[in-house]
Fold this protein.
Amino acid sequence: VDPLVCFAVKANSNLSILRLVTDQGAGLDIVSGGELLRAERLQISGEKIVFSGVGKTAGEMRQALRYRGTGIFSFNVESLSELELLNQVAKQLGVRATVALRFNPDVDAHTHPYVSTGLRENKFGIPYSEVLAAVRGVAAGKYRHLRLQGISLHIGSQLTSLSPLASAFGHLDQLVRVIEGYLPGQIQFVDVGGGLGIAYRDKDEGRTPTIERYCRLLVRHFGPASSLCKDLGRSLRIVLEPGRLIAGNAGVLVTQVLYVKDRVLKGAQRRFLVVDAGMNDLIRPSLYESYHELLPLIQAKTHKKQRVDVVGPVCETGDWFARGRLMPASIQKGDSLALLSAGAYGFSMSSNYNTRPRPAEVLVDKGAVRCVRPREKVEELLAAEEVGV
Ligand SMILES: *Cc1c(COP(=O)(O)O)cnc(C)c1O
């Protein structure tokens, strides 16, 4: 088995992080021309890049087809119209694009609806009947500038059980067998996406699927000794696109308490800790009501606890990090808190809402501490804007 592991750049796209994962041999899963420029900056071989996403533009296709003179490993195509356009763009450039069709297996990933991608009603991927229509088109010689070599899927993110993946892999296995009837010998790889969940809560530690179990499932379905590979009479390359699993629990967001606000609501004491980080820095709680552990950087001397709401300074009621959380009652103005599990979909989803410059990114690597992106300055945010007309 010679798998290709492509780190999902959108999970954490800082160049120093991409350098670390690619130095370990990983490739990159990109979803935009901007992310491809990051790969280029790091001189990542095109042989290790897959391009996902439902809305690739012709310009992004050209950029990827020309990447370092040789193009990329695979365009994971998400619709028949994208297939048409990619064929045209490749024709104009006089090249052939390697393609995987992203199959939507219509399975419920049992995750938050905003990160569920493998149901028929989601915008992602191509349903079974359309995949077969595309395959028939390829067999009829309709896409002369494409080379269909793979099938991909990605059914969602933060999956806490392997069973939706097992079911999706079963559908993928069947699909590859059917395609083999139309295009014998042509499918070379299966790209199984990412999606493995991590423990955001201390109490979930050890309850998320292990990498070992996941790999065993993969090898059972698509490994050289799988019944699929035996029936095809060849091995398939396995491509993986993990994001959150790699970066999620490797990062924290450090923030400071600006104010403590006490209020009595329906006879009950209610405390707000207003911190200097906001939803623009880490949007996951606001967007998915997701849970992040919160730790005071300096441990309290007393054990007295109090329920608090930890909120940011942004002018939105949805700007919160924790609600009704038990925290040491001694926390006061000026104290620093760490929001854990902020390494994936944290900074990479951040914005400048409320004209807030984003925080510095600091890499801690085996005790060495290095700033890998300085704190933004408000002047930088304003620099490109024109005053008046
Ligand atoms: C976001 C994404 C991933 C990474 O998902 P994780 O849940 O972070 O592992 C992989 N593949 C595709 C196509 C994606 O959109």
